[in-house]
Amino acid sequence: MISQRGLLAALAGVATHIFYFNRSEHHMKAAIYILLLFTVASLHITQGITSHSLPPQASLSSTLTLITPFFTGLYTSLILYRLFLHPLRTFPGPLCARLSDLWFSLQVSKILDAHQQLLALHSKHGDFVRIGSSELSIKNYRSVEVIYGPQSKCTKADWYDLTLPLVSIHTTRDRAVHDQRRRVWSGAFGEKNLRVYEERITGVQEQLVRVLEGKAKRQKAVEVTELFRMYSFDVIGDLAFGQSFDMLKSDEFSWVLGVVDEAMMPLGMMLPMWVYRLLTIVPMALNGWRRFIGFVYQRVDDRLNKKVKVPTSDILSTLLNPYGGRKPSDTELNILRGDAQLILIAGSDTTATTLSSILYELVKSPSHITLLRKEISPHVRPNGEIPHHSLQNLSHLNAVISETLRLHPPAGAGLKRKTPPEGLVIGSIHVPGNVTVSCPQYVIGRDEAIYVDAKSFIPARWTISSELVKEKEAYVPFSMGPYNCIGKSLALMNIRLTIAKLIMQYEIRLAEGEDALEFERGAKTYFTTCPGRLCLQFTRRE
């Protein structure tokens, strides 16, 4: 029979859940709570030994008779609340997902396929799926505008505390800080800067062509997924830091890609943020992330210490302009480093994914290569150059890019938002306040309620067959509203220039014996979705 002390401890656990843990956010305090538990337990054990002359084992047993009912009460209250009283209790979803956010982490942890898991969940449960204790995944087309649009009252969810103390324009949850940083960032993507970037992209393209030329002469297959990652890192190194990483030329920085993969892996496990924040203080737990951040620190510090000669304006120069040559404060330095980390990931992996995905779709539907060549050919200069201003309005090229982004969105699992206290209405459904919501673009892009023949690659749906897009507002590969992708213009320029260059210079097909199944089957979702291997054969066109 439970003692009076045990009963009081259990009631204290229930009260702790109802009046403390059930209010506000606690993911940044997990380590403090664990430390507090061990401190209180140690003090109670010590008191039993010193004040009551109890043997150590008896004092430990006495302490456990309080701790055990406390946590029994706390978790009983938590489980009953999540099952029967939670504002999301009426939304469909797996039973275990209602009880713990760790359920979804366990589903995706083996092969990091959150985009596929979400597709399966929505196929089974419909437009609204409860994938965590306080989280909804929503594929209803109306949700995109409501959650991400310019008038949305949603804020960024706790996921964005991922990199603290580093803060970037992407991860800051403070709207005022975001808007101030966006004004600074916008200077890097003006028309004048884009013209400079185009010349620099063309220079890296020449190295890419040299690599492909060597493979073509030896009739060797090219694994383009990894090649485009190296290419994109070289481009972003040049444009952002004024110094290409030269991954296409040498092995000096080739290790960085492996470190990035290791750093991103915990993100692919979709861990609850309190778990991730705990891991940041566990030695050896996030070594890949620490090595990657060390690499980022070095790039920023080299610029601040003027160890890198910058030939012309680059993105980091724009971000440094507000400091007027003075040394940034510690807070400002964390923002600079955070932005630099964002540039490397969002500026390289997303572009590499899109380039690989475009070629994947084109080799499966080679008639579109013919159409692209016909469209691009009049704009090729005698020296082989194709200026971007002549590409940016080509309808079929843009349609191919748009259709690829629909089927292979770089951020396929969705961007997490927190609903306002009063909640929001999507169609006829009221979504409660203070819960996490996201719209998985990978799932939305394959929804027959939004796209006719949704699984097929049909670029014409963006040009002459617009009736194949039932709900245009659902298509937001670069997000929308105040947090939309500020680097969209640069990304599209790089994609257009690179695809045009490759299809005009090479015949491209699947390598001998390849079926390309691994490209989608082996795709992994971290912050971005990275495709599996794709081996192609490049042959120089006459």
UniProtKB/TrEMBL annotation:
Its main location: membrane. One of its GO terms (cellular component) is membrane. GO terms for molecular function: heme binding; iron ion binding; monooxygenase activity; oxidoreductase activity, acting on paired donors, with incorporation or reduction of molecular oxygen. Its cofactor is heme. The chain crosses the membrane at residues 30-50, 62-81. PANTHER family: CYTOCHROME P450, L-ORNITHINE-N5-MONOOXYGENASE (EUROFUNG). This is Putative cytochrome P450.
